[in-house]
Amino acid sequence: MRGRYFxxxxxxxxxxxxxxxxxxxxAPDDGDARRLxxxxxxxxxxxxxxxxxxxxxxxxWSSVQLLSxxxxxxxxxxxxxxxxxxxxxxxxxxxxxxxxxxxxxx
Length: 106
What we know:
Blueprint lengths: L1 H15 L4 E8 L6 E8 L2 H13 L3 E11 L24 E9 L2
Antiparallel strand pairs: 1-2, 2-4, 3-4
């Protein structure tokens, strides 16, 4: 039964996510399994706001909050031991990294 609800959740996110937005990380909130932490990148800030609005207008979601958005500057990332991580595919130079949280109502 859980798989069915997970598929509904993913379908709802897919409908809200338009071209120019990539969702990279989905995780339940530690305090409430129905709250979902969502991280991604967008090619422009408007696309991030469009995603937030689409989720706010969907009755399956509530308490949608944009937590952060920053320009992705391509700064290299290192592992805990200091060695560089393999590079990610190049992001558009104007990409925006974002984080939001939303509560699933089903």
